[in-house]
Amino acid sequence: MSFRFFSLFAFFMSFSFSAQAAGKLYDCEINDFGTGWMGPRMIISVDESEQTAMVFDGIIAEVVEVPVPAQVSRRSESSLRLNWTVKNIPVSNVNTKETAKYKAILNTRTHKVTVSVQLNYFDNEPRGTGKCKVSQQK
């Protein structure tokens, strides 16, 4: 999955995210506390002036294959809340597909992110945190 993720990431960085206005790109290393449902790396493209964002990670790469839009709302001067949904995630051990509703709190000052996932069919509530490298989009 790693090679495929990075190949898709490179392609979509030059195509999908470029359609968005100039903003910031957060390349985040995620520690999911062993609960799964999120990849070890998450790419978030944010245009705060337009209040738009796109998210890409290993699960999105496998299931949707393109970055997904996220709803953006400002929590404070230095904090954004992002919400997005990924449908039809295969769950092999129960032969079904899951819908995951993601919520991320992105601190634009410290470049840290906290991610939580609400699942339809499972009771666990996966969580993760990460530190992001930030670059300016053109």
Question: Care to describe what's here?
Answer:
This protein has 138 residues and is mainly beta. It has two helices and eight strands, in the order H-E-E-E-H-E-E-E-E-E. The chain has an eight-stranded antiparallel beta barrel. The longest helix has 13 residues, at 2-14.
What secondary-structure arrangement, pairings included, does this model have?
Blueprint: H1 2-14, E1 24-31, E2 41-47, E3 52-57, H2 58-63, E4 68-76, E5 79-91, E6 96-107, E7 112-119, E8 127-136
Antiparallel strand pairs: 1-2, 1-8, 2-3, 3-4, 4-5, 5-6, 6-7, 7-8
The tally of helices reads: 2
Largest sheet composition: 8 strands, antiparallel, barrel
Our Rg estimate from Cα atoms comes to 14 Å
Whole-number mean pLDDT? 85
Helix content: 10-25%
Oligomer: single chain
Secondary-structure element pattern, one letter each:
HEEEHEEEEE
Task: Going across the biggest sheet, name each strand in turn.
Answer: 1-2-3-4-5-6-7-8
Structural class: mainly beta
* Alpha carbon gap, first and last residue: 28 Å
Question: How many DSSP E strands?
Answer: 8
Extract low-pLDDT stretches: 14-20
Query: Strand portion, in percent?
Result: over 45%
Give short descriptive properties of this protein.
mainly beta; 8 strands; 138 residues; eight-stranded antiparallel barrel
Brief summary:
By secondary structure, this protein is mainly beta. It is built from 2 helices and 8 strands; from the N terminus they run αβββαβββββ. It has helices at 2-14, 58-63, and strands at 24-31, 41-47, 52-57, 68-76, 79-91, 96-107, 112-119, 127-136.
